[in-house]
Amino acid sequence: MIERQRDLRLYIPVYSIFIAIYVFAGILEPTFFTWKNNANLFTRITPLILAGMAQSFVLLSGGIDLSIGAIIGLSSAIAVSLPFVDTPLNVVMWVLIPPLLGLSLGLINGVIIAKGGFNPLVVTLATGAIWTGVTLFIMPVPGGSVSLSIARTIPGTIFKVIPTPLVIFLVFVFICHFILRRTEFGRSIYAIGGNESIAYESGIPCTRVKILVYGMSGLLAAFAGMFLSALKVEEVGLQV
Fold first, then answer.
1. 65-101 pLDDT, tens per residue?
2. Domain segments of the chain: what residues?
3. CA 237/CA 24 separation, integer angstroms
4. pTM here?
5. Which backbone phi and psi does 87 adopt, to 5 degrees?
6. What backbone torsions phi and psi does residue 81 show, to the nearest 5 degrees?
7. Of 121, 125, 176, 197, which sits most exposed with the smallest number of CB within 10 A?
8. Which parts of 29-119 fold into alpha helices (H)?
9. What does the pLDDT read at residue 240?
10. CA distance readout (Å), 56 to 64, 105, 186, 217
11. CA dist 79 to 54, 201, 218, 219, 221, Å?
12. What angle (nearest 5°) sits at the alpha carbon of residue 82, between those of residues 76 and 83?
């Protein structure tokens, strides 16, 4: 009960500021409160929310990941560079390849940091520069395409009322909250972030957990990149 009261005191200022900004924006522009505008807001902020959740996992473990933006860019470039556009195979590749890429890049960060003992700021800054270079090599100028079904579904609506980005946002928030609060992996993240030496002495496999944390960060960043790839594509010609 005491912990919940402490958490509530921490949350109140954050939510108060959010509500104040939201109301102030609505006063300046009345159309800000319309459902259409709010649906558009959910569409635009979902990639940022995914990136924020990716960084949250790392920060809670006592690290930092400066390569998230680069992984988002590379995942987006890969997503719009896949062949066989407008075929079921393209959709399957879009669903599988960018997440696997992001997970792999995150695990690379984790292995270098956890097993090599290097500073996460330096490592992720360096790997981020590498991933950015790879992105520019793959796509030096804007371009690419995805299947029409993806371009219509991701920024679309469910039952012509509920914005799909809102559903995606809520699903990811629920999953991440469940992992952090209800799983041994999540409790290990908090323990390592609090005091890694004590966590290690308590029997927590710190190296493995830190590697998985960076893998999770890369995976969430890849999902953000996939989302952006669908938003950038116009239905006419499917050009980015």
1. 999 999 999 999 999 999 999 899 999 999 999 999 9
2. 1-33, 35-232
3. 39
4. 0.89
5. -130, 155
6. -105, 0
7. 197
8. 35-60, 68-79, 88-116
9. 40
10. 9, 17, 12, 8
11. 19, 43, 15, 14, 13
12. 160
